[in-house]
Amino acid sequence: MSPFLRLSATTNKRELENPAESGSPVKKAKVGSDGLVALNNRHLVAKQEEAAARGEVFVDHLYHLGLDSSMPLQEQFGKTRFVVMGGSPVRALDVAQLVYQFMGVAAPQPIEPFGKTERYSMYNCQLGEVNVLSISHGMGQPSLSICLHEMAKLMHYAKARNVAFIRVGTSGGVGVAPGTCVVAKSAVSGLLEPFYSLDILGKTHQFPANFDSQLADDILACAGDDIAAVAGITCGTDCFYEGQGRLDGMVADYSRDDKLAFLQKAHEAGVTNFEMESTCLAAQTSRWGISAALVCTTLLNRLDGDQVTSTPEQLKQFSLNAQTLVLRYIKKQLIAEGLLPADA
């Protein structure tokens, strides 16, 4: 378990951009040269060994996905290279459809979700030599955390190699124009601390919220002239309204000046956008040794107001820009790795 990490009152922008440089230890799961996702839960490892000694099949239930480790997961998911995550089931299906379109592979009709759909909707896009998963993770860090735990275990049991998790979504911008795709280099909490806080057995633990910087750079390089994209720091909060300083919730016990002062402070610290999942995604994947990225389109500039005023057509295009940017990168990478034909 990582030690309890504290943020000093003198934390500066450089530390927000890379908390590892501020002296805080970053503990990652060890990933071998084979690229497999390691299972670092000693309790589950012990149960596996006990079952093997009895000649039994070890069963770990991935309850919220509707899967378990006794299923032929390696056959179904062993070729997974990317897991694309979005908030809603509708977005997960949209991304799945775009995956087939971008990769030049005929989509099954209809495209059906895999496993349970009560909490998450997952689509296993099979592209011949490689799979790309598209899954909804719900809204907020608690829902995302459950999804991440079970998806990471799924990748472990499937023996998938070199898997990367990429969240694609929307956000409120800070100092950037609506429609800008923010590719996060790191994340901060609603306190503007570069950590994900988690209460475990009555104690609060904080884990550095860093993304894979090379992955972020590679995605950003695929923007081209038609998609406005910037690298930035994403603030992940546990509340859409008060937690993000909005004035249009049921209550707002602060002034407009208070709100603007906070947003300006965040902006000066390098924060480019607000959403509700970034710190959990960055910290948990980093702890587990899984490469991850976050690409969120801004729907508005929070310094100008709280209400989204873009037209439905504009909002659809904003969302499509982030998906297009990510899928451009995925296609480029799969072709480079020989998993897709160059003319796909």
In short:
One of its GO terms (cellular component) is cytosol. The chain is an alpha/beta fold.
What does this structure look like?
- With 344 residues, the protein is of the alpha/beta class.
- The chain has a single domain, classed as 3-Layer(aba) Sandwich (Rossmann fold).
- Helix content is 33%, strand content 22%.
- The chain contains nine helices and twelve strands.
- A hairpin with a 4-residue loop joins strand 4 (122-126) and strand 5 (131-136).
- Helix 4 (89-103) crosses helix 9 and helix 5 packs parallel to helix 8.
- The termini are far apart.
- Mean pLDDT is 90; it is low at 1-30.
Tally of helical segments: 9
In the residues, how many domains can be counted? 1
CATH architecture: 3-Layer(aba) Sandwich
Strand content: 15-25%
Q: How many individual β-strands?
A: 12
What is the 3D shape?
globular
Q: Tell me the series of helices and strands, N- to C-terminal.
A: HHEEHEHEEHEEEEHEHEHEH
